[in-house]
Amino acid sequence: MRIIVLIKQVPEMDRVKFDSEKGVIDRKSAGVEINPFDLNALETAVQIKEQVGGEIIALSMGPPRAEKTLREAVARGADRGILLSDGKFAGADTRATSFTLARAIEKAAPFDLVIAGEMTVDGDTAQVGPQTAEYLDIPHVAYVTDLEEASDSSLTVTCNIWEGSYRKRMHLPGLITVTKDINFPRLPELKNKMKSREVEICRWDFSTFSDNLSPEQTGLKGSPTQVKKITIPPPIERKGQVFSPEETDEALAAIEKICREKRVSGGQS
Fold first, then answer.
1. Which residues pair with 204 in a beta bridge?
2. Bond into 188 cis (ω within 30)
3. Judgement on whether residues 254 and 183 belong to the same structural domain of the protein
4. Are residues 254 and 209 in the same domain?
5. Burial of 57 (0-12, 13-18, 19+ CB in 10 A)
6. For residue 77, is it within any domain?
7. Is the domain of 125 the same as that of 16?
8. C-alpha–C-alpha distance, residues 227 and 211, integer Å
9. Does 267 reside within a domain?
10. Are 27 and 15 in contact (CB under 8 A)?
11. Fewer beta carbons below 10 Å: N end or C end of the chain?
12. Domain check: are 190 and 267 in the same one?
């Protein structure tokens, strides 16, 4: 089975700072890492490969430094990596990103399965995976929490949507997006770390797709939506009040008052 895993390099969100005046993420304020959900996608691919055999290709779109992310993907079980890197790809929204990734997947064909993380921690849209599948015109299942069965021709998975749990069987080729509940990504093995240092990461720029991609379809030009400003919500402050055992009546009265103000009771004593 030939599996393509979508990988994105994202800022370390627990360390990154926000420019409140400009309303943007200060990406230089923190290091970068593989999007956590993509690690689950990669681990899923490795587990499928262990069952049915095949090849895993890690595919990413980003600046040249994203090559480091693809090498980490190889260290974690991918066989090779492809980096889409060109100034014309910059500024892409989910639509332009998905369209470009779909064209790259077609170029890397044949493929049996595409796996992506549920979402990216710097976007939280959960749109790129399903949109990519739509551009490829292949079936897709989102929010996969369990991989039940894998074969060369189909997958049986469980996905959670809203409050429902669904068991689905998908014929291949197809695409799935996975949640963090599906597995625990394993740590890189020494032999794979050594391999990742030597493996050649293919770089595809805009000219690679001159036959099926125009400047108006990718990057900022191909993006119908743009992030104008990011607003950081103020921290929620909580207040408490302590009553002694001798102040039971006062405590009950205070609770009743709060319930009346919040309208969480009918006001009955």
1. 84
2. no
3. no
4. no
5. buried
6. yes
7. yes
8. 30
9. yes
10. no
11. C
12. no
Per DSSP, the three-state class of 151 is coil
144 shares its domain with 188:
yes
Question: SS3 sequence, 63-108?
Answer: CHHHHHHHHHHHHCCCCEEEEECCHHHCCCCHHHHHHHHHHHHHHC
Residues 258 and 194 in one domain: no
Decide: 65 and 32 in contact? Cβ < 8 Å.
yes
Answer yes or no: do 212 and 256 share one domain: no
**Each residue's pLDDT tens digit, 46-73:** 999 999 999 999 999 999 999 999 999 9
The answer to whether 138 and 175 are in contact (CB under 8 A) is yes
- Which domain covers residue 262, as residue numbers? 239-269
Written as tens digits, the pLDDT of the chain (269 aa) is 999 999 999 887 777 676 666 556 666 666 788 999 999 999 999 999 999 999 999 999 999 999 999 999 999 999 999 999 999 999 899 999 999 999 999 999 999 999 999 999 887 889 999 999 999 999 999 999 999 999 999 999 999 988 889 999 999 999 999 999 999 999 998 999 999 999 999 999 999 998 888 989 999 999 998 877 777 677 778 778 888 888 888 899 988 888 888 777 554 54
* Residue 15 token pair: 């360390």
Query: Would residue 44 count as lying in a domain?
Result: yes
Nearest in space to 188 (alpha carbons), one of 197, 180, 179, 200 = 197
If one counts every other C-beta atom within 10 angstroms of the C-beta of residue 105, the result is 23
Tell me: do 6 and 76 sit in the same domain: yes
d(CA 168, CA 6): 22
Instruction: Report yes or no on 231 lying in a domain.
Output: no
Cα separation, 20 vs 6, in Å, equals: 31
Which CATH number goes with the domain that contains 151? 3.40.50.620
pTM (two decimals): 0.83
